[in-house]
Every structure is written in structure tokens, then in C-alpha cells.
């Protein structure tokens, strides 16, 4: 009986890290229910939620108190245009990477929480990737770089 008790305790101790790491992985997942795609930005890969319609583009990352360091959101538009984003009801500081239809980075900007000033792409862009503040620099991405976008849905 003592052997079974010791074996049970040993299994419980060994299983505890697995159980807690599984919980952490689930809590890091986006809560939006949007589809997610991996995008290589510079030297890093990010799990990006896809905002491809008016409602999801307007909602963006509003009201979130945090986002995992390796996550972001990609905004898909129907055509190239000079884009402006603002931080209405957005609680976390963000970097925004604007891309033209070919995936060329046309601007990298920083945005502050709750700032309703429009932050523009300068040149026409069809996509925008929002990342946690500092991630654009950490990934090494800069204007003129090419980001190979995976298959994304068409804008609606």
C-alpha cells in the first residue's frame, strides 16, 4: 500500500507542471474567436488574428488589457489606400506595420493607448499588422522589407 501511495504522489508531482503549462497555453489564446494565421515579421513569427470585415477591423484590439508577446492582428482591406489607425478604447501600446498589396513594408509606427490621433501609413497600404509595442523593433522589421503573407481571406 505504501508503494502505491508513493507512486501516486510521484505521478502527481510529475504531472503538475504539465497541467499548469497546458492552462497557460490556453489562456494565451485569443479570446475573439477570429481565425488565426502565423506571419513571419522580420526575425520573429506571430500568431495573428485576422480582421477582414468592417466589424472586426473596427473592433480591432479594443478593450484588451494585454496580448501575448508573440500575438498580433492583421487587418485586410479590399485595395491599397493611405490607411489611418487610432487607439480609441485600445488599452495596450502597439506597433503597427503597414504593407502594400505585395507585402512591402511602407511604414512602421508606434501607437499609444487611448490616443485618438490618426496614425497614417504615409504610402498606400492594403494590410496592417498590429503587434505589442516594441515588437516591430525586436523583430528587426523596417520600411522596404517584404513580409510574405499567408493566404488571407478577401476583405468584406
Number of separate structural domains: 2
Query: CATH-wise, what's the superfamily of the largest domain?
Result: Protein of unknown function DUF192
- Estimate what percentage of residues fall within beta strands: 25-35%
> What CATH first level of the largest domain would be assigned?
Mainly Beta
Taken from the alpha-carbon principal axes, the silhouette is globular
Strand order of the largest sheet: 1-2-3-8-5-6
Number of helices: 3
Description:
The strands form 2 sheets. The protein has a 6-stranded mixed sheet with strand order 1-2-3-8-5-6. It is an alpha+beta fold and 156 residues long. A hairpin with a 5-residue loop joins strand 5 and strand 6. 24% of the residues lie in helices and 32% in strands. The protein is built from 3 helices and 8 strands; from the N terminus they run H-E-E-H-E-E-E-E-E-E-H. The radius of gyration is 20 Å and the shape is globular. It has 2 domains: 30 residues; 106 residues, Protein of unknown function DUF192 (Jelly Rolls), CATH 2.60.120.1140. The N terminus is likely disordered. It starts with a helix and ends in a 17-residue tail after the last helix.
Amino acid at each position: 500500500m505504501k508503494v502505491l501511495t508513493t507512486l501516486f504522489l510521484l505521478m502527481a508531482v510529475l504531472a503538475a507542471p504539465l497541467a499548469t503549462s497546458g492552462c497557460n497555453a490556453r489562456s494565451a489564446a485569443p479570446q475573439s474567436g477570429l481565425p488565426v494565421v502565423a506571419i513571419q515579421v522580420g526575425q520573429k513569427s506571430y500568431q495573428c488574428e485576422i480582421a477582414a470585415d468592417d466589424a472586426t477591423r473596427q473592433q480591432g484590439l479594443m478593450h484588451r488589457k494585454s496580448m501575448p508577446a508573440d500575438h498580433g492582428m492583421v487587418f485586410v482591406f479590399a485595395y491599397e489606400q493611405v490607411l489611418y489607425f487610432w487607439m480609441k478604447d485600445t488599452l495596450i501600446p502597439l506597433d503597427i506595420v503597414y504593407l502594400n498589396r505585395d507585402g512591402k513594408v511602407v511604414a512602421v509606427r508606434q501607437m499609444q493607448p487611448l490616443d485618438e490621433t490618426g496614425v497614417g501609413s504615409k504610402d498606400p497600404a492594403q494590410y496592417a499588422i498590429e503587434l505589442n509595442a516594441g515588437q516591430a523593433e525586436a523583430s528587426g522589421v523596417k520600411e522596404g522589407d517584404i513580409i510574405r503573407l499567408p493566404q488571407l481571406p478577401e476583405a468584406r
